Give the backbone structure.
Amino acid sequence: MHQNSILLLFLALAVIAVIVFTYVYLSSKNAEQSEQGMAQPLKKRFWFLLILFVILAIFASVTIPKSPYFLFADETPAKIVHVSSMQFAFFLSEHAIDPKNPSGEPIELPVNELVEFRVTSLDVNHGFAIYDGSNRLITQTQAMPGYVNRLRYKFTEPGTYNILCLEYCGMAHQIMRSSFIVK
Amino acid sequence: MESIKLRKITSVWILAVFVLFIVSIILGILMRLNQGGVINQNPVTFYANMTTHGLTMIGIWFVAGMAAINYLMERYVKTSYTVNLIALVLTVIGVLMFWVSTFIGKFHAAWTFLYPLPFKLLGAESWSTLLFLLALTIFGIGWLIWSVSLMTQILRKYSISQAFAWQHFKKNPSVDTPPFILISMITLIGVIASLLAAVVLLALLFAEYFSNGSFVNDALLMKNLTYFFGHTIANEMLYLGLAVIYELFSEVSGRPKWKTTWYVALAWNCTLVFILTAFFHHLYMDFVQPEGFQIIGQMASYLASLPAAGVTVFSVLIAVYRTKMKWTLTNLLFFIGVAGWVIGGLGAVIDATISNNVVLHNTLWVPAHFHTYNAMGNVLFSIGFFYWFSTQFAENIKPERFTKWTLATLLIGGAGFLLAFYYGGADSIPRRYSVYPAELSIGAPWAVVGAIFATVYLIAILVFFYNISKRCLKILSSPS
């Protein structure tokens, strides 16, 4: 799963950092007065920077095309869901939602087909985060007053998906939620 | 050399920062205990405490960095005591107003006060929003005057190109710009830019507040301004700490003073550009933001790590590697702080990757990484300075007893409290939830673990507070 790989990558890098800093500290503690430190530091600095730059460039070129703005950008959604958020509820509907009298309906979405959520807010900023059946955050966008964010996603597993608000929106932020079914 | 007045006001800053820090840590521990189900706070109280915790922490570590560079800058240029005092008085007034707005008025829009939430708070006193905005105005005035004054003093002695160390791009420069001056200059520009964004933000908020509904702001513009201000000031306060390290690390280690070279000059000039454009990564999940800005956000976040890692971190490692040096609590805290900064930076770069941000944005991964480079980075830079400062004027400094144990306590407490955040983030636990919903109940035990280790961290901070503050109090009571 995505988050587990991220955590493992982070922990591995953090452990490497701790080892490097500890090693360097110990090398100073055990150094003789006559020792001269690192030989040719400028050359080593150059190589370190070059390697870091290459790694970051590879990371950027692999990850940027996977950004949500580019995923499914050329496809036509099979289903469109309108989402209006307000303190502290989500309204989901297959039809346009009247901002003066918002109402929602139960939503059922097709499996393996492209769905577009058109997400907005009627008051403050909210988050629109979709959690799968094993309570993993799988995708999200922000719900912003005056704007409509279009979130596209293809659900590959049938089941009930929960929606939680992930942008702090006030005293009942933690109970603001909704759900839909994928069949 | 610095005056006794400067010495005394720096002591007051240190004491104030420590006291506010301890209160804010306790608020943080209470938040984690509430999330863990150990205590049961009203959600409004929880979010008001969260607001107090966040803004107090940002404010104190910003002023701690400013007080430190103000003190050290006196080695190179004359600084204004009056401005330092104005900043102190306005900060104290601002904190009092801000705390009344949250503790009594229950203002709870979080330290980012993201528009339009401050105007749509339920459960808060109606006057609290105005008081909070006025408190921010007071901070803004005091800090802007302070930053502009310090920058002006630098520019009285150094020309603009010298302050940016551009002459170091040529061979054998006729004037040496000390690294401390270069970094202070770069950082102060960032600070001033972020404070000016805050001024615009506040002006727009006041305009809407007093317009009785006839003027409404644009939410996307306000979000950009908010994060330009918030991200920039939160990062610049770290760079204030780095200026202190460049000045003091070699000195306390008994090693030759660090000099500005062409690559140090280049690195810090690049940092200025990257740091002012990286804030876009806060808006990745706003799909209406132009895509170009989103890509700039990821690129700038990645590129910002190059000068940081390739120059500053590498320089610290080179300075230490196989070099016999005098280790004191100050350079040890600086060294551990740089490690904490690196590890927090790794978490930050991972989160600044758009495709990761989709599953990490506004989860506990966010507080995880920024607490790493603050609680285990910037805080250690500042405490390193505080310790060094407090021992400058004390006679017969005996090596502190239990220093090793205090450091071990700090590291264990810090690591445990941060890991609870990282694991929570990887488990998709949202940030800024007073309690967790049933299906995310795994967040509760992580919160309890976080609270326990944060208490261990607090114990180490209390020991540092005791040792440093008793010497600062002596400085204050010494004859002028």
Remarks:
- The domain at 4-477 of chain B is CATH 1.20.210.10 (Cytochrome C Oxidase; Chain A).
